[in-house]
Every structure is written in C-alpha cells, then in structure tokens.
UniProtKB/TrEMBL annotation:
SUPFAM superfamilies documented for this protein: ACP-like, CoA-dependent acyltransferases
A molecular function GO annotation: catalytic activity
Protein name per Swiss-Prot or TrEMBL: Carrier domain-containing protein
Ranges where the Carrier domain occurs: 1-62
Organism field: Dispira parvispora
InterPro entries named among the record's database cross-references: ACP-like_sf, CAT-like_dom_sf, Condensation_dom, PP-bd_ACP
PROSITE patterns (UniProt xref): CARRIER
Length: 491
C-alpha cells in the first residue's frame, strides 16, 4: 500500500506513520485488513504500534471471536454541543442555516440515480451527524440525531444546459439547508451529455475540512464497489471528549487566550496519549484542534495528541488534505459561508492540499504565554492583508507552491536568541507535489510536547498573483519577527 522497499522496513522499529503513512492511508489499510479478516482498528495504528506490534495484536485477536473492534452503538438521540458549536451559535450571524461545506465530483463514468441513492444512504448510515438537527429551547441550542427511518435520504437529479451550469445549481441550492427542520446536507446529481457531476454539501456545524475529505474518500470507496466496513465513534462520546479537553485547559477552540492562559493541563490529569478525541476516521465537527492534529500528522508529527494541542485559530476558510487512488475523480470545492467569504478550488485527486507548518523550538525556557500578543497581531494582520487581495479578484493561471521546506532563519534576522526555525522534514514524494493554499490565511497555534510552537499558514494560491503571494509572505514573516521580538523582550 505504501509502495516501500521491504529491505528498508524494520519490523521492530517502524510504525505505519514513520514509513510515510497518514490518516487516510491508515483508513485504507484498516479497511483492507478487515476485508481479509485481520482484526485491527484505527486506534491500534494511532497509538504508534510498530509493525511487529500490529502483527502481534492481529494474531492475539484471531482466536477471540468475542472481541469487537466496533465503537459503542449509537443510532439516534440527544448530544451535547461541542465548544466550537457553542461558539458558532454565539456569533452574530445573519443566517445560522447557511454555512455550507461543498464537495463536487466529476465522474468519468456516470452512475444511475439508484446507485447514488445507495451511496448517500451508506454515508448517512455511517455518519450519524448527517442526521443531526439543532433546536433552540428556552434560548439554549441543543443537538439531536434522528433515527435513520425518520430522515429519508433525498438525492436530487437535474440535466445541465451547459457544462459549467453546475455553478448555477450550487448557487441556487445552497440556501435550502435548515439546521432545525432539515435538510442539513444536500446531494445533487447533475448530468451533461456523457459527463456527470455529484455535489454533496454539509452544514459546517456537522462537518469540517477533514470531514469533507473523509466523505470524498467514502464516496470513492462506495463507487469502486466496496463497502464502508466500520462505523465511526458515537458523536456523544466525541462531544464529551472535546468538552473535557476544553475544560482542562481553560480554553475554547477558536478563541485567542488572554495573557497567561497558555498552560498545560494539570499534572494530575492522565494525558491519555491517543484518546478518542483524535478519532480521525469520522466526521469531526468544526473542530480546529482535530484539523491541526490531522495536518501535523501529514508532516510526520505522529506523536502529537489531543492534550498537546491547546489552542487553534478561528477557522474562516476551507482546507483539504485529500489523496485517493481508487477512482479517477475531479475534486472541486466551491461555496459561500456565513461570513461572506467565497472560495473556488479545483484539482485532480491525488494532489495534496495541506498546511505548511514552520516550527519554532523553545531552547531556553521562554514562556509560551508571552507570544500571545504577537500571534494576535499575525492573525489580524495577515488575514486583513490577504482578504483585501482576494476580494480584488487577482488570480493566476497556474497554482504556485510557496516552498516552506527550505530554511527560513528569521530568528537571526530578528536578532533573537533562544529560538530557532526547524526545517520541515518531508518525503521526496511530497516535495515533488505542489502545495495549494487557502483563500484566507490560517494560523494555528498549538502546544507540542511542551517544547515546540508550530505556526501554520495556508492560502489558496490560485487566488493570488506571484507578487501578491510574496507580499503576503513578507507580512507573515513580519508578524513572526514580532513574536520573536516579544519573546526577546521577556528575557
């Protein structure tokens, strides 16, 4: 699956991730194992078991018919809102019902409407949150999941007069969502001559960027004739884990902390290195912490855990980390969210879109809390700067990659001792791929094993001219220098 040279694999030392695997390829691996009767779960891989360790687990479980690797059963009922969902309802939005996350697939082989109904039915059955509803009771928002038989699957079909008319259908239908009465997702099959498009859009309350990648992978799996072999973690458990983490660190995802709030969880709390919080194989709910961990995983930070990540920036854009080789599809995202931002990204499946982290390692015990003011400046400055260029309509004919893999020793230029910029170590395969970026720059601030402060920034390069990209990067580096100078002033 990972196309490795067997002579370079060390069974007692190597793990799935250190060999170049990521969360999505791990899902493929687990599914293939289950199809062959090998009893391994995503949690086994996420715990960092070596290949020998995984083999031992598989042998031990082979004779245990009572062992069930499926998560606890949950089909419907109430659930507690996550911190990010509560944050969403606290915003002064013009329309709570309209914040779609879109997925548009162009198929080389059209499928029948019945086949698409089967695909969507499987998605709704596997991902409980596609049956979610949100109600306001006595001024408080509450969540619930409908039973499968109370939420009929609807797949709409239409014929396009021109191939590009799919944008018209998307624009006309994105206002149809309703988080209280439904639908909370939209599914459309659009035909133009011998070409077929499948459009799936979910409200941001029930999905985030990682979720859409998982759904795209699920659709691809189903279209290739395979089944979705396992169900995901029940959402009430997911919600409880997020709530517990948020309470422990006294932070809410999406909110910048005040001075002194960047602290580790209490020492008496079991860190639970790979808790269900990092359950990367299910729909996650607008959770920026999980997205950050997912992105870090792609760059080899395999031992990062939920408890290491204590803060992320506010998600205002769409990012995807998607790779698929089972069916030739074109993957396109297009939409307009509740904050009035729009995006349009198109690429061929197998082309990675990812976060680009630069890691500042703390060498001399500087308190991370002193970086808060600088991070706020970067978040405001870069976002305002980039939005201005995005709205001006500047585009480029072909995407460019702003290469973060080289050395950016901005610590020297800032005259700051005690910090160094760590190069990102990536595989040759990744270095050969171009890195697309998002409409609005995102900066995620996270705590990594108490020593590192990853800063990640991303853009969608097709929105920017090369001159604009350079100007944005100059602004970003200026912000990071500001952080470093703040640290220097604290010495």
């Amino acid at each position: 699956m990972l196309k490795l040279n067997p002579n370079r694999v060390h069974l007692q030392r190597d793990t799935f991730f250190t060999l170049g695997g990521n969360s999505l390829s791990a899902m493929h691996f687990v599914s293939r194992c289950k199809a062959d009767g090998i009893r391994l779960a995503m949690a086994d891989i996420n715990r960092g078991n070596t290949l020998a360790g995984l083999a031992k687990l598989a042998v031990e479980r082979a004779g245990d018919a009572t062992m069930d690797l499926q998560p606890p059963e949950f089909t419907h009922g109430p659930f507690s809102l996550t911190p990010v969902q509560r944050l969403y309802f606290s915003w002064d939005l013009t329309d709570l019902h309209q914040w779609p996350l879109p997925l548009l697939m162009k198929l080389t082989t059209p499928r029948s409407l019945d086949e698409w109904r089967g695909v969507v039915t499987s998605l709704v059955s596997r991902h409980d949150m596609m049956r979610a509803r949100f109600d306001q009771v006595d001024g408080e928002w509450q969540g619930r999941v409908l039973p499968i038989d109370e939420d009929p699957v609807v797949v709409n079909q239409c014929t396009l007069a021109a191939e590009t008319d799919y944008w018209r259908v998307i624009d006309e239908t994105h206002t149809m969502m309703n988080i209280t009465t439904g639908p909370i997702y939209l599914a459309y099959v659009m035909n133009y001559r011998d070409t077929q498009y499948f459009y799936l859009s979910l409200h941001h309350l029930i999905a985030d960027n990682t979720s859409m990648n998982i759904l795209a992978q699920d659709v691809s799996t189903l279209l290739s004739g395979q089944s979705l072999s396992y169900k995901t973690l029940p959402y009430p458990i997911w919600s409880q884990n997020l709530d517990g983490l948020s309470d422990r660190v006294s932070l809410k995802p999406g909110q910048l902390p005040t001075e002194g709030e960047l602290t580790l969880p209490p020492s008496d709390v079991d860190p639970t290195p790979h808790s269900p919080f990092i359950q990367r194989d299910q729909l996650v709910i607008s959770n920026l912490d999980a997205s950050t961990a997912f992105a870090l995983d792609q760059f080899g930070y395999c031992d990062i855990t939920a408890e290491d990540i204590i803060l992320t920036g506010l998600l205002l854009a769409y990012t995807d980390v998607f790779n698929c080789d089972s069916i030739p599809l074109q993957y396109t995202s297009h939409g307009r969210n509740a904050l009035g931002n729009s995006w349009d990204v198109s690429h061929t499946v197998g082309f990675f879109v990812n976060f680009c982290p630069i890691v500042l390692r703390r060498n001399e015990g500087n308190e991370l809390a002193s970086t808060v003011g600088g991070v706020q400046s970067v978040l405001r400055g870069v976002s305002d700067f980039a939005v201005k260029y995005m709205l001006s309509g500047q585009t480029m004919k072909s995407p460019i990659a702003y290469n973060f893999l080289g050395k950016h020793d901005i610590s020297d230029s800032a005259g700051t001792k005690g910090l160094e910029v760590i190069d990102i170590v990536a595989s040759d395969e990744f270095q050969e791929q171009r890195v697309n970026m998002d409409p609005i720059p995102l900066i995620f601030l996270a705590k990594y094993t108490g020593e590192c402060l990853p800063l990640m920034i991303s853009y969608e390069s097709s929105r920017y001219s090369e001159k604009c990209m350079s100007a944005v990067m100059e602004k970003w580096e200026e912000g990071v220098r500001h952080i470093l100078l703040q640290l220097k002033s604290q010495e």
